[in-house]
Amino acid sequence: MFYDHQQIEKKWQKYWEENQTYKTSNNTDKPKFYVLDMFPYPSGAGLHVGHPLGYIASDIYARYKRHQGFNVLHPVGYDSFGLPAEQYAIQTGQHPAITTEQNINRYEEQLRKIGFSFDWSREVRTSDASYYKWTQWIFIQLYHSWYNKNTDKAEPIDSLIQHFEEKGTEGLNANQNDELNFTAEEWKNASDIDKEDILLNYRLAYRAETTVNWCPALGTVLANDEVKDGKSERGGFPVFQKKMMQWSMRISAYSERLLQGLNTLDWPQPLKDSQEYWIGKSQGAQVQFKVEGHDETVEVFTTRPDTIFGATFMVLAPENPLVETITTDAQKVEVDTYIEETSKKTERDRMSDVKNVSGAFTGSYAINPFSNEKMPIYISDYVLMGYGTGAVMAVPAHDERDHRFAKKFNLEIKKVVETEEDVQEKSFDSKDSVCVNSDFLNGLHYNEAKAKMISEIEAKGIGHGTTNYRQRDAIFSRQRYWGEPVPIYYKDGMPYTLPTSALPLELPEVEKYLPTEDGDPPLGNAKEFAWDEANQKVVATDLIDDKTIFPLELSTMPGWAGSSWYFLRYMNPNDEETFVKKELADYWGQVDLYIGGSEHATGHLLYSRFWNMFLKDRGYISHDEPFQKLINQGMILGMSAFVYRIDGTNQYVSKNLAKDYQTQQIHVDVSLLKGTSDELDTEAFKAWRPDYADAEFILEDGKYITDREVEKMSKSKYNVVNPDDICEEYGADGLRLYEMFLGPLEQSKPWNTQGLSGVYGFLKKFWNLYFNGDVFEVSDEEPTKAEYKVLHTLIKKVVYDIENFSFNTSVSSFMIAVNELQKIKCNKRNILEPLAVIISPYAPHICEELWSLLGHGTSIEFEKFPALNEDYLVEDEIEYPVSVNGKMKFKISLSAQLSAKEVEDLVISNEKIQQILEGKTPKKIIVVPHRIVNIVI
Questions:
Q1: Checking phi first, is residue 602 left (phi over 0); if not, alpha (psi -120 to 50) or beta?
Q2: Spatial CA neighbour of 149 closest among 167, 172, 169
Q3: 638 near 720, Cβ under 8 Å?
Q4: Nearest alpha carbon to residue 655 among 675, 677, 636
Q5: What is the pLDDT of residue 132?
Q6: How far apart are CA 95 and CA 511, in angstroms?
Q7: 315 and 295 Cβ atoms separated by less than 8 Å
Q8: Rounded distance, CA 893 to CA 126, Å?
Q9: Distance separating alpha carbons of residues 745 and 790, to the nearest angstrom
Q10: Low-confidence ranges of the chain (pLDDT < 70)
Q11: Scanning 16, 396, 685, 858, which has the fewest C-beta atoms within 10 Å of its C-beta?
Q12: Residue 693's Cα: distance from chain center in Å?
């Protein structure tokens, strides 16, 4: 019977949509299972075949859990704020909302074609005001919260104000920007503005001067993960370090909890390692060094206070405020030039560049508090202002980076840890040796020396033991248009939150999407964007009088804001009263399975864990962590095609002749190749772009053969394969099966369209099991033991594979089972019905059609997954090879139920063995049950 995949798939996609087959109920006594894909950003290019890989895997698992009787939440939505739509708006004037809507429609059309079992009724979009109303609401809660280290959680700001009113800062143990000291009386006497300024020092969402990655071409601040090699990831524009007033999120308050929480999660170890490194916990001491001729001191954090006698110079971060104060006139030009150069590098670049050594001498000296020796003070880009104190005591004998710096600038290298190595040539940083040249530390091992030195530092009153974290607070402002407005207005220069009743603060219309002439962010172009405090509404900007009508914040939130809590909104996306009801958050709880790319390790996955912990602290939800199990899917790679252009000409030489010429390798669109071969369609190439219209070709055997290479699938490499084309030719079920068949989910693998024909052949074979010629024919006859064995072997394998996410081996098992059933011409209902259920998570359309033909009036989706019966896998008979003195003589079939002694007796009494033995008694008989019999004579 002809397998018409196009007609079948359209029919069932229409059925699922009309019947809302995958709509999930919040009211049920079923156990829950929450399956989620990482939030997609709807780009203009639409999906290529690499994108659905993770979605297909999560969809298989979601369908499998439904078959097991779970209430499955498997939603979809769009992270729809983003720079690409804004850049397009700047270039064309088209509002980002229009571009985004078009992109989402395209994505949705493609996703529906692949047959995903999403609950489309729960779709959310971060750029919808009904959604970002609650992103703004969460921001307000963060603003009105502080972190109490005594209770180790976030608390309402009112409790901090109460503490100030009763005790001032006495007994306060809070996360803060600066350590403040004042009495209750001083607090009460402070002005309202001063009180607001003090509270900003403690709020979890706060405004402060911060060093940021500023991209002038994009007109915005970028996160570290949006910058690569000193340029913006989007567009490749130069990025500079710059100090600006910015909103920040106090994620640093959660560093220890974020670190400890990793122990409770079933995540890939490399991903956990990335977060652990990013958080960067280290224990050591904070120490103050006096600066000669100045009142200022340099404070450093060191993990090796035991090596302080070996500290021979100091290095400050170029952006450390002390630099300006202590730099001498003679060194000012050199220092300023160096600071300018450093501003062109991001913190991430500076951290990763371990080979290049650079710096500038400030002209000043610090005094080592223990050796009393003078230490020249330098600046260098390897010291970061955001980590520790923005200054290090350099111990070149025992730190590789300090050693390279000392060698370059000819600075003293002093051994303080015993070693046979020549520390003048190479640093020695072991903790296994003892201290030398260190006065009262001599002869002590690392742990003893560290503890002793911390005691001495504290006794001198120049510092204390402490724990430090590399993780800095997350910058929360972007100077761009297409993002969530920050619900803040300014009165007497101080920020105040809008009342929650005024939310959402909607994105205003602007005439242009670039910064204003005064350098304000694009929202500065809005004509209706001021806050009328008395009437509590947004009014015209030209009415601002700073008495009753005040300016609103002109920055917008970063791209990660909306994706830091979206998994909670899916639980009840249309609730207008709250971001999620507590009872629903308690029912759905954590995401049980989260699938997405590893590139989000230190961005989205950290921020969402932070927001989740905060919301738990404030009592809105009950679970600590958002994502219990996480899988990073691998990448599907493209097979790029290249032509070779002879330098300085418009001549193109075929691959195997290119070695004879000076050539340039150029990507060409894979659609220009003939069929599935490597041969270029030269006429199509000439028509592809105007600059190739007069191309000339040097052929081999009358053909132009392109070079091929496996690379990341990307529009810029012209190697993208559109899933729509695959669905058209091979069907969505073919695409789903093939993507799983390519290899283990976590690994990267190359795409090869030719490989689809094998999977498509399997689908046709599976379809025809249910037909006799063109007639649907399924028998109610009881299956044989052999038929049941094929089915239950498959059940056992598929259950194991799905639960271990080994989807590729399941597809192989389907092929084996269908081949075996075809060989024995099985058409029994008791085999073919469960077979359709087993394969349906992978290939839902064909299985729905077969289920319907089998006489069922409801969807296959909620049928119970077939139960394994191990009895069918037990062999009735075993064919034993019988060997004499190690040589196999014959085989004998015996009951599988026989004991070793019974097998031995039957073999010895066998006529063939009697002839071989010729009356002799065997020396030894070895029986390996169910395997082999060996007789020694």
A1: alpha
A2: 172
A3: yes
A4: 677
A5: 98
A6: 10
A7: no
A8: 68
A9: 26
A10: 225
A11: 858
A12: 43
